[in-house]
């Protein structure tokens, strides 16, 4: 038994089923990523992370646990990693992005639940993902109805702590969110046995801010006329940001950005001049969901920005680093997080403003509004998004999809027609 199999077996995983996943992932990664031309050398790091996705990082998390540390699994960009790292614990993203996990979720959830929730529940209950096995506690949130009920199901199998996210953005809601962050801090302190001090919190605020700044730098490179990196590569970096060691991720992403900035200076582009620049907006694309990026970028277009939680919503805005007491720091964290514009808020006009702003900054030619099947929130909000884009004269294509490949050829036809229309404008 090799080291990874021994680790997975010790985690109580279903090895037979998990081996099936391990067989298809390298092929999928090779088809989507390694077939691209002129990739930056700095992508080698992320290739390596994905190649051993269920090996390297899980082993690090277990090592942390063996030293007495705790690991918390999270599912939403509203859950503040800063508080978790300040208690010498590790936060890791757990959103499932593969169809492989969906049937396991469907055993306990209605079929008309979004694939992200079904995959996340299936990955835990089918015991086919080491991250879902390793996490000592899951942190849920009251964002959408499907998730709220999923926490109740998961809590029968693993400790789950749920944060009550307000769904409006009045001053009293920001205050309520700060109270929820304070309650999370108390829970994390109790669970880890470690105190969250102002010094510790200042360190972790910096740690996570630096990660956001590195991602912002990466995205800034995508604003350039000559594009030094594909959207597909940028997406996998955003996805890895959710579970990699934050300091190492920041270092490797900054190193990649050095190369990308040099490419911009040298006039190196991964696509021919004039390639239509597309922005995606909508529901998150959890790893390994690379479907739409692959379709767009093998149909003559290129993705330059994602207004998504696996995109700008994750890194825009920093937490104020000047606060000195835990109370002030928590208020600053709450203020930063409440600037994220998710469709679970009402009203959510800030998201429309963001999309219009990003369309200008990234010089986009067209927008694809992508919605995960059965996500009622983003589907409904698509009405406002698409209307605002039409009013602004930005071509928009609305797409609803899931993790299966059954609609891939239909999507390819629609995306191809959209890009052709942009080319003929
Ligand atoms: S789409 Fe909303 S609920 Fe989902 S991760 Fe993003 S902020 Fe959280
Ligand atoms: S995509 Fe929509 S339905 Fe799915 S978890 Fe996110 S907000 Fe909920």
From TrEMBL:
Single GO molecular function: iron-sulfur cluster binding
This enzyme's EC code(s): 4.2.1.-
Spans traversing the lipid bilayer: none
Gene3D superfamilies (alphabetical): 1.20.1270.370, 3.40.50.11890, 3.40.50.11900
Alphabetical list of InterPro entries matching this protein: FldB/FldC_alpha/beta, YjiM-like
The entry's keywords: Iron, Iron-sulfur, Lyase, Metal-binding
Cofactor (UniProt): [4Fe-4S] cluster
A Pfam family per the record: HGD-D
Family: Belongs to the FldB/FldC dehydratase alpha/beta subunit family.
Name of the protein described by the UniProt record: (R)-phenyllactyl-CoA dehydratase beta subunit
